[in-house]
Amino acid sequence: MPDSDEKWRLLRELTAAFGPSGQEDEVRRLIATTATARADEIREDTLGSLIVRRRPATGGGRRVMICAHMDEIGVMTTHIDEAGFLRFAPVGGFRTAQMEGQRLRFQSGLTAVLARQFLEPGQDKTENRRYYLDTGLGPEALAAQGIDVGAMAVFAAPLTETAATVSGKALDNRIGCFVLLEALRRVRSRHDLYFVFSAQEEVGLRGAKTAAFALEPDAAYIVDTTIADDIPRNPVATLRLGAGPAVKVMDRTIVVAPARRDAVAALAQSAGIPFQWEIIDRGGTDAGPVHLSRGGVATAGIAVPVRYIHSPAETAAKSDILQACDLLVRCLEADFPAESG
Amino acid sequence: MSESTDLLLWVEEILAEGSALSGVSAHEAGLGPYLAKIWGPSCTESRTDALGNQFYLKPGRRGAGKILLAAHADEIGLVVTAVDEKGFIRFAPVGGVDERALPAQAVMVHGRRDLPGVICFAAAKRLADKPIPLAHLAVDIGYGREETLALVRPGDPISFACEFKLLLNHTGTGKALDDRAGLVVLAVCLRDLTGRTHGPDVLAVATAQEEVGCRGAVTTAFQARPDAAIAVDVTHAQSPDAKQVTAQLGRGPVIARGPNLHPLLTEYLEELAQSERIPLQTEAIPRATGTDARALQLAGQGVPTALISVPLRYMHTPVETISAQDVLLAGKLLAAAIAGLSPDLQELEFRY
How many CB pairs under 8 A join A and B? Predict the structure, then answer.
């Protein structure tokens, strides 16, 4: 087993990779390289999802899809003016008006500041069209760098660490990718495992939809991040950092079959892994399209609580991440219940 | 006449029985014995799929195609999100709960066992002309935090606890009539078809998770690959606060017209209602309907789909109100339509 520094080095590399929805190539290459030693088969599908297969030593198991999205939120350039200021559209749930003053980064490495234009009295500063990106370069210099309409940018923030937490951009959902890679490294399963690193989740759960249709799995586990709400003055916090991975009950795209979520919870309990229940009425996950694929797929979800999600300072507890790995390995090594129920 | 009166009594009885059951989206399994009782006797086989859809088959003549009848098993409700420091249960809606109707309602919390509760004010907040926000409501089951936590956990469903009652004129009122009424329509249809010859196989499905986005219907249609489908649901009937609603209670079932529905299948049902002297009301739905028809129409290579609804007042409240007569007539219409489809559904060109 790699030592602790080595482990968090992988998460640091995963979060550093550039991968807004639809342009996940950097993340995909990194994951393929990391997975290759333990993979029986690696392929990329039409939408850009990476599918890593791990066959069982013997036959008789089931086909299981384990899915984590690899894309991150960002922005796309829509217009460049004479001075070189860039107008942009959000890619995924990018909250422009709350990101004033943040640094963004293009794939070339060029950074930009997200700034707000001069406002006339009465103009609404929550409107996205009041904001622009400033790279310091004029139109010709931008063109020379290959920055044109359509160029995407993501948050430019390195991963920082404390003994207990990590903080940075794209923890949603490079944490999920990390958990899948760690499970792939450790798992000894009698099932035929397909680890899917899905594309384009943040813009509408797209990659997982076609991957699930193609793979036709008997069961699926979705690993993603979720909204930790243990912040000051919240009297009813339901998801806390450091209280263990969350077992999905419901989000806007799925109500998990009670038997499936209870099976995951029972595995956590028997292994002494603490867990929380995840119920969020905002946001959906790949679990939505996957459980509705074809005639229906028995789907469960494991989520790592993250504070300040969709910001450059997404913050998670290391223990939750490691316990999510443990729980996923348990799930994949179990004889899970039949697809119905 | 007396056969019809007996049938109406049976309809009222199984409406009451269905309304009393609880089946908040994804927790429809409890309806199994009920369906076995009201659909089972007419059918030869049944099964449940990964999403909780419950399928019942009444075979027709071999090779005459398959018609799918879908009524959803689930009901709107609430879900436990947390237990606060004083032991009150906080909740979120499952499906389109009418928030105006929540304060002071009796509910059942389906925890380790069924626990009666009442919806109370967690904060004394009243906003002029607006329903009290859900964040300011909670459920009181009478226990403090520790005892509550031993019985209730996040994710447990909460249903309304409101006993079904018969009002005057065969009018019934209670919770979850959306869409237990549809299940009863199918029961009437299947019973009416018993002993009659019909061409196509009839696949009756109690779909899961309609109220959270027609999810059961998506996988149902994928598996069943029907030649035609009819969704059976409820629709708004005229009530004191309903604007632009044409359907009235007690004036017969409602057929929907619009781009979500196949014009020829709809026309066929309309003509049949006329020849069978079954009163039929019409509603126009200019977009995707908020019913299983939305998913059924777009399944596979496309399925000719119609929508028959029972008019209902006060939708998504604990006092949904319907006419047992309308339910009975909707079932009769469906049965006549299916019997009229012999000999061969596939020969009918439900195309444009």
Answer: 72
